[in-house]
Amino acid sequence: MTAETGSTAGTAGSGDTAGSGGGTRERKRDRWWVVATVALVLWVGVRLAVNGLSSWPGALVGGVVYAAWITWWTNRRRRHDARTAGVEPARMAGLERRIRHEDIPEDAAERQAMAQLVRRRKLKLTRGRLWAFPLLGVIGVGSAVLWFVAGENTKGALTAAGAVVFIGWLVWLNRRTLQRFNRLERRLGA
C-alpha cells in the first residue's frame, strides 16, 4: 500500500473494508502529518491552559519540538514493528487497530504478521514493566518528599496521591493489555 494513494492492492480478501474499524488500509489519521498536528495542538493547548495566553511563544516552540519528537518516535516504532511482522510500515496502524479490537484476519499471511507483532509487543511490555514501574514510583515518591521538605504539604500530598493513582492506572492498563495479547495469541495459535 502506498501512503499517497491509499491503495490496498494485495489485501483483497483480508476483511479490509473502508468502513470497518479493523481493516489494514491506511487512514488519514494514521499519516505522520496528522500525528504531528495533533501533538502540536495538544501541547500548545495544555501549555496555554496551564501557563496562560502570554506564554504562547514558548508553548509554540515546545509544541514544535514535541510534535517532531513524537512523529519521529511513532514512525520509528512502525518501521521496526513492520520489519518484525514482515509488512509495510504503512499497514502497521491498521494492524494495530485490529489488535486493539481483537479482530483476527482471515488471510494466513496477515494472521502470521499479527502473531509476530503481538509477540513483539508482549515481550516489550513485560520487559518494560521491570524498570518502568519502579522508576515511576521513585519519581513520584521523590517529588512528594521534595514538596514536603520544602514545607508545601498540600502539594506533597497531591503529588503523592497523583503518583499512586497514575501508577495504579498504568498497572491496570498493563494487565489489561497483557490479557488482550494472551487472548490474541490463543486465538492466533501462536
For the sheet with most strands, the description reads: none
CA gyration radius, whole angstroms: 20 Å
- Per DSSP E runs of 2 or more residues, the count of β-strands stands at 0
Helicity level: over 70%
Inertia-based shape: flat
Structural description of this entry:
The protein is an all-alpha fold. It has helices at residues 32-51, 56-85, 92-100, 108-149, 153-188. It is flat, with a radius of gyration of 20 Å. The two termini are 26 Å apart. 18% of the residues are buried.
Give the topology, please.
Blueprint: H1 32-51, H2 56-85, H3 92-100, H4 108-149, H5 153-188
Quick rundown:
With 190 residues, this protein is an all-alpha fold.
Features:
190 residues, disordered N terminus, flat, 5 helices, mainly alpha, 0% strand, single chain
